[in-house]
Design goal:
The complex is a heterotetramer, with 2 copies of chain A (310 residues) and 2 copies of chain B (248 residues).
Chain A: E1 6-8, E2 11-13, E3 17-19, E4 42-47, E5 60-63, E6 66-69, H1 77-90, E7 96-100, H2 105-116, E8 123-127, H3 139-142, H4 144-157, E9 162-165, H5 173-182, E10 187-190, E11 194-196, E12 199-200, E13 205-206, E14 213-216, H6 221-234, E15 239-242, H7 248-257, E16 261-264, H8 267-270, H9 274-289
Parallel strand pairs in A: 3-16, 4-7, 7-8, 8-9, 9-10, 10-15, 15-16
Antiparallel strand pairs in A: 1-2, 5-6, 6-14, 11-14, 12-13
Helix pairs in contact in A: 2-4, 5-6, 6-7, 7-9
Chain B: E1 4-16, E2 19-24, E3 38-41, E4 53-56, E5 59-61, E6 64-70, H1 74-80, E7 87-94, E8 105-110, H2 114-123, E9 128-134, H3 143-149, E10 152-157, E11 164-165, H4 168-173, E12 181-185, H5 188-201, E13 205-208, E14 224-227, E15 230-233, E16 240-242
Parallel strand pairs in B: 8-9, 8-12, 9-10, 10-11, 12-13
Antiparallel strand pairs in B: 1-2, 1-7, 2-6, 3-4, 3-7, 5-6, 13-16, 14-15
The chains are: A alpha/beta (310), B alpha/beta (248).
The complex binds flavin-adenine dinucleotide (2 copies), flavin mononucleotide (2 copies) and FE2/S2 (inorganic) cluster (2 copies).
One flavin-adenine dinucleotide binds at residues 38, 51, 53-56, 67-70, 72-76, 112, 115-116, 210-213, 239 of chain D.
């Protein structure tokens, strides 16, 4: 037997495979397909202070090896989440991580506070990076000053582990990673979706009602691996890697570059049991490679020496 | 109950140049589908196209489930090329079926909406007054077998190439004493007109809706529709809704 | 007959379809497959002051619906380019656009100067965005100050049309577009490749000898369309769009969001006649849609009004 | 001359569980390939996998061109599933062929390098002293027909399961009077050893190289190798090089 258990800022996970926020509902939706007790952690859909209706439809569109989404963070609001969704999740022996966001720093803080006090929430994931909100908002994830402010403000009220989820729509992911750490994040997770657009050429309109959306799926995996690798080089806190993971092989790329855990997003839609398949594939890989403990795979990347001639 | 399963393709034939029927055996022990429900079906063996596509129950016959699909884009194109014997993944049956008709009913199909309506009249055959409309005769499928399934059937085409020239509403207006419950599936504009028509007559009306879908199980929130009770997922709370609940 | 001709900063192109730098060699390599006279313009491989050997192999790797490359800007140098490669291209009645770069501002300027004086060069494309060079270098494309400096310095010596080719690895493509315009660019082209990485999980090494590479191909198209759209909203100068174009339909998305011309990159490898297929597909589309002139398709995007509920 | 063309798949059969041969007719009027040349072959009908794959001329027979390939990854896996009758795109023949042997020659194949070497000995049959090595007998293909093609043939396997136990070098060392030109294709390590072996004996040596390729025509510069004359493209200036020109 190999050890798959990892520790993320004080939380022990049975295995390093989580669900990615927004792709697994509130857990219940997939409980028919997946024994939720088998997961490393359940990360639920982004929660805000008040319920949100999100964007008009169409909200998704398929692109080469990927998809655009502009759900617009529809959610039941923190109150209903705690009273209606959390009790179901508490039945399981699996850490629940709650992704949350706000339209203002005050809303971020108030939501964080409510979740911090909720029984059955193991950690909070601060979402500064959803690209689907009206202009200005997305600056939380791409503007260093705004991002620092929101992390510091939230950190002040959160005693549970705080994970900051980073946007890939930035020039320098290393800098955003370091800033998150310096502002008090216990872990970072990346990548969120990359802003994209597709056009209906007959109608000459964006295919999504929101005009733009976030790109996810295998198409973005090489970008995600690169960013997770960059982040792992500069922070001491754990990094949770995601972006385009379909198989255990994909997940292993993230572990090798340094991710302490991974999250499965779009793959759940294609294969409702994708998380379980990744976990068992990971186990087989470790056995075949003669690795006793997943922790001794993490961060073992050997770089090629740069031998550029001129 | 195991609604994520693999099945072998038992048939995949065109019924006209742009429409095909794909068939597979339901998995043993799995809940049998009800008319109005649908499957998310894998369309390629690789990762492009990536997402499964939603297709309604067209028919349950000869121990097989049959889905009728129109080839409209990359996904359905790929689907039409999958050979017999190939194994594909499916999720389903999904969604809320049509409520069981109490007695005779009006079934209205527009375009490929006939897939879902066919599933209904096949099950409740001889109670259906079918109204089936399309742009032209080329887009109407299997009119003979559909005629046999229903108690009475009325066809309409925009160009008059088959049945009445006009819409299903024109066809409905020509028939007297239609006071049964209405079941409809078709394009948005047609459904709006049907809902209107039924409302004017005080008839109960069930409609099956379509939205772009990713998960099919209520998790991704891509397929929402506004109802009197807030936003609902077409995949999980639908696709069949009571027309009075929908806010369009 | 429909009009396909467009004007890019004073150069009249027979049609708006160019080759993307680095994917069409020096033109000669594809002359067997493509009548070079039929192209809108030929953009050649990036040229530097001295010949460059580039990176060790493997230099490419295939990823979902795309590829990573780390050629490392191997090229014959500006002198040999002018004496050995340009004469061949001069035979054709097609504008030649020369992509160029340097390791320092001085090298950029010197190379630009040599090309500006060369007979048969219609325009220069300033490449600030190749992500494959040693650390520090890539800052030309992602650091606003450095980018401004190099554009201004090059502009001073270049009398021919100057196109600035932008990097997608930035937080704010609008800002980089405006800066390019303000610093004197006659046009901008985008996107270059997005930095990515893939791991050989058996060897626990990056698959590319250079460790990271640039992602191109259909996978990045939604990102490219979004960035070209953003750029078109903020600049007056023409925008040349590229990134994942395989077909005329793909190209049309770029025209609709505002690109005055498009470039075909990775698609050439898959289909050596991709450029010609895009041109003829474009013509058919215009005929079918009853559009007389490609110029009346450009920038005709109708956005959805934002109707987000909250 | 039209080296970008479509062809119908005339055969696509496995010769062992991980190796297959795909066959197509050359286009009329197109330059016939020479041993050592290769094609870039489409492996999927969609855009994933995207790039064509380089495969050497294995055989030209029965009016068909045959390419032998080992199923090693996503691309060759897809290729192995393409059905007969499917039309695929090819670019080729590409690259510099083996120089015509003047008289008898030594042909050395390692692993799937046998594809390219087979093309050579088929053309210059009965002049070849073939040395063919692989890890084990399961990886050796068509040993009988290959024996018949060559004047003499010597097999070696790392585990001794067929022919001599050892490498092709071990096999070469057992044969006296080998003073002819050497032609070799195989993995990097084997080629290095072969070049060394030939150099020690003062024999001319031609090797066929492999590098990851995107375009196949010298445009993308992905497939370079260092030579005495600077960097060269394996696809255009090779894949066959005189070993003395290569700087490894
Ligand atoms: C509940 C439900 C049942 C359906 N039943 C049938 C049926 O029985 N027969 C039939 O022919 N069609 C049916 N449809 C529509 C069918 O799903 C689409 O035609 C199909 O997904 C198009 O895929 P494509 O890749 O060929 O088209 P593309 O236009 O290339 O698809 C691109 C993307 O848009 C989505 N999409 C495109 N059109 C639709 C649509 N109308 N509804 C949902 N998503 C769409 C696709 O799933 C895909 O993600 C149903 C749709 C729903 C929601
Ligand atoms: C000139 C030339 C001739 C060749 N002839 C033959 C032949 O006759 N028979 C045969 O079995 N193989 C041959 N090869 C190797 C063959 O091209 C690869 O095995 C094949 O491309 C692997 O593709 P894949 O997608 O299955 O593997 P993957 O490893 O999944 O491929 C991923 C990527 O790497 C590239 N790649 C992987 N291995 C190689 C390789 N060894 N050489 C070049 N690119 C590679 C692929 O083209 C693809 O872009 C030849 C290679 C070259 C350069
Ligand atoms: C439909 C959908 C909804 C998402 N909703 C959220 C969300 O609410 N909060 C969040 O932080 N990320 C959200 N994401 C981003 C994912 O959590 C993940 O970061 C991203 O999709 C990349 O992973 P993938 O390629 O495996 O999907 C969403 C993604 C998708 C596809
Ligand atoms: C192999 C390869 C080499 C490239 N070399 C250059 C280059 O020398 N200069 C440059 O500005 N862009 C270079 N590019 C980027 C392309 O010009 C183009 O911007 C990018 O590939 C996106 O377009 P595509 O998806 O159509 O390939 C190169 C791309 C590839 C794939
Ligand atoms: S398709 Fe995901 S919620 Fe309906
Ligand atoms: S494969 Fe492009 S140069 Fe050789």
């Amino acid at each position: 037997m190999v050890n798959l258990s990892v520790n993320i800022c004080g939380i022990t996970l049975k295995n390093p495979v989580m669900t990615a926020s927004g792709t697994f509902g509130y857990g219940e939706e997939y409980s028919e397909f997946v024994d939720l007790n088998k997961l490393g952690a359940i990360v639920v859909k982004g929660i805000s202070l008040k319920p949100k209706e999100g964007n008009p439809t169409p909200r998704i569109y398929e692109t080469p090896c990927g998809m655009l989404n502009a759900i617009g963070l529809q959610n039941v609001g923190v109150e209903e989440f705690i009273s209606k969704k959390l009790p179901f999740l508490r039945q399981y022996d699996t850490p629940v991580i709650v992704n949350f966001f706000g339209d203002s720093i005050e809303e971020f803080v108030e939501t964080a506070n409510a979740l911090n006090n909720a029984d059955g929430v193991s950690a909070l994931e601060l979402n500064v990076s959803c690209p689907n909100k009206a202009a200005g908002w997305s600056n939380f994830g791409t503007d260093e000053v705004l991002m620092s402010k929101v992390i510091i403000a939230v950190r002040r009220v959160v005693t549970k582990p705080l994970i900051v989820k980073l946007s890939p729509n930035v020039s320098d992911i290393k800098r955003m990673s370091v800033i998150s750490q310096e502002c008090g994040a216990d872990a970072i997770s990346l990548i969120n979706t990359i802003t994209g657009m597709s056009i209906d050429i007959k109608k000459r309109r964006p295919v999504l009602a929101n005009n733009t959306g976030g790109l996810s799926g295998p198409a973005i995996k090489p970008i995600a691996v690169r960013m997770v690798w960059e982040a792992c080089q500069v922070v001491r806190i754990p990094v949770i890697g995601m972006g385009g993971i379909m198989t255990a092989q994909d997940a292993i790329e993230f572990f090798i570059v340094g991710a302490r855990a991974v999250a499965i997003g779009t793959a759940n839609f294609v294969n409702p049991r994708a998380t379980l398949d990744v976990i068992s594939g990971l186990e087989s890989f470790l056995i075949n490679e003669g690795i006793q403990d997943i922790n001794s795979l993490i961060g073992t990347l050997k770089l090629h020496e740069r031998t550029t001639c001129n | 109950m195991d609604r994520y399963f693999k099945a072998e393709i038992k048939g995949n034939y065109k019924v006209n140049p742009t429409t095909a029927v794909i068939s597979f055996s339901p998995k043993e022990g799995v809940q049998l589908p009800q008319p109005g429900q649908f499957y998310m079906i894998q369309v390629s063996k690789g990762i492009d196209p990536l997402l499964k596509r939603p297709l309604s129950i067209f028919s349950i016959k000869d121990q097989c489930i049959h889905l009728l699909y129109k080839i409209v884009g990359r996904g359905t194109e790929c689907l039409s090329k999958l050979p017999l014997g190939e194994t594909i993944e499916l999720i389903g049956p999904l969604g809320i079926p049509y409520p069981t008709p109490n007695g005779e009913f009006i079934a209205i199909a527009g375009g490929t909406g006939v897939a879902s309506i066919h599933g209904l009249i096949e099950r409740f055959s001889q109670k259906a007054y079918l109204f089936y409309g399309a742009r032209s005769v080329e887009e109407l499928i299997m009119t003979d077998s559909i005629k046999n399934l229903s108690y009475q059937s009325f066809f309409s085409t925009d160009d008059g190439s088959y049945g009445i020239k006009g819409t299903v509403i024109d066809a409905l207006d020509r028939v007297d004493n239609l006071t049964m419950d209405v079941y409809a599936c078709g394009p948005h504009l047609m459904l709006s007109a049907v809902i209107n028509w039924a409302r004017q007559r005080g008839l109960r009306c069930y409609v099956s809706l379509e939205e772009y879908m990713a998960c099919g199980v209520g998790a991704c929130l891509s397929c929402v529709v506004r109802t009197n009770d807030g936003l609902k997922s077409v995949c999980k709370d639908g696709p069949v809704f009571n027309s009075e609940d929908i806010v369009w």
